[in-house]
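Marked as duplicate of an earlier ticket. Keeping the data here for the record.
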Amino acid sequence: MAVQKRANQADIAERLGVSVSTVSRALANEIGISDVVRRDVQRMARTLGYKSKHITGAASGDKRAVALVPLGSATSGLSGFYFGIVEGMRQQAAEAGMTLDVRLVNDQMVTLDMIRKQLAQADAGGVLLAGIDAWDELAVWSAAEDIPCILVNGSDPQMRLSSVSPANFYGAYLATQRLLDAGHRRILHYTHRYRPTILQRQRGFEAAIAATPGAQGVIVNSADRHTEELLADVLAGKHDVTALFSWNDIAAVEMLEGLYAPDSPVPGGFSIIGFDDLPLAGMATPRLSTIRVDREAIGRGAIRLLGQHMDGETAVQQLEVGVKMVEGETVSTVV
């Protein structure tokens, strides 16, 4: 069996139709080489598995990445959600031989300049943004500089950046259908500001309602009514609903005590379903019915997707991780 020849600069030059001197200078980041040529050379080096002391870790096959996790999410009720994602990323990175630098950042301070600095400090060739949505400047920069950027627990409706997220639409459809199957026909969906991922949950709710004759959906946004205000509205019978589907577990759990208190005015059998299956859902009394998100799988998928892009994959991909219904104790059948 013939031994495969190790790629050299001449191979890169031949593939690209440039001189060996140009390849050498591009790999060494010398002046006088355009950004386009430099990116093409480094991409081809990755594709061929070329090793060089000059090129960055990502280009040499020694993959290095930075994961930026919003500090607010990591230290709030969402900490369990992002902890699972980070654990999945770390596990997959270790298996793939990728060096992963996880950094907590102020989500109000995430700018393109900050991302550049984080990448430079870690000598990284790719970035994972957890719970941070795409914006025009970021997408343009990622494409122009050939720096892979993966949205983790996010999505880009304009399909400029690859992403990994739970199946938000189908998870919401599943939750709403569970309430419909229990006989509920007037259901309230409590939603949040319109991140693309959360909007998919609203669309899933609307689709399930539309597919069921006689069903009516009521949508309330947290920007209009805070959780305690919505709870007061429901207790007062304002929306005339028998069930509620919340965009996440945190808001749902905050309403449980009021809804199921001995002196609660809501009719017997009032039902509520959350989303995410955070640890607090299992600790709640009664146990919250919810949609389980495989957070570790999201993290693993993000690393695999980033690795593909660092190896030269250019197609934008939107990976969805399946979800499951957790029955809990907060769904009752309407008699």
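See parent ticket for discussion. The mean pLDDT is 90.
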